[in-house]
């Protein structure tokens, strides 16, 4: 009798295990739907395994979510983490090499909403997800969208966001009181285009206690008349080294307080790259901007406590 019950128990256990495996397989293979920032729904029978990314911040997001191995090609500007530099480079986000992308047979192409290549890629049978993070809220939302595309739980993207949010708060707490209220001009392109108050860079500066001379009403990244900056007379200027050449020679700029008192933070290329990318390295960007304010803000001593790096997402 005991032997019969034991056999029956084994059969029942086997059926349970088979049922669990079947359910797990069915869940893994369940159709996946994502609505991108164009409002277009994209559908797959299972999570994409071959991914092309044509925006550096999206490339970094895929890798931060632990799925770098799914990338088969990137744009020419994607350079972090180091592993992506070994992938095929497919042109820029605005001028991608369509033929090279098609040849890679990607399951999805991640692009900026600003690119004009989406329609052509879709006409050639490729699935395209267009995403455009411009604010902190956008970064959090895009993290979630990319996690969806990858078939990952939302908790994975929320973990990354919590790290970013905590790092920005820690950077703010590291600043001396004298640095708060500093009036800042952040130039993202020598046209000049600025990081406005409503951009993700502007929001980080605000959380650091700085005052952006470019108000939210002008938009996230407005093109300015250089005279605007002269009139605004910022205390500190932040700019990447590639865009710094000739800046102080602009008419009237020698009289700007930041220029006159040499309160300029000219970021090396690697730092400038991460500062202008709305993605997982915003944590490090906050620390870099905080260090600039601690060193250059009027009345600051330059000895701000540097918050220690936290978790993943560091260069």
Give structural notes.
With 315 residues, this protein is α/β, with parallel strands linked by helices. The protein folds into two domains: 104 residues, Nitrogenase molybdenum iron protein domain (Rossmann fold); 139 residues, Rossmann fold. Helices cover 41% and strands 13% of the residues. The protein contains twelve helices and eleven strands. The strands form three sheets. Strands 7, 8, 9, 10 and 11 form a five-stranded mixed sheet that branches. A four-stranded parallel sheet has the order 4-3-5-6. It has a two-stranded antiparallel sheet with strand order 1-2. Strand 3, helix 2 and strand 4 form a beta-alpha-beta unit. Helix 5 runs antiparallel to helix 6 and helix 6 runs parallel beside helix 12. The termini are far apart.
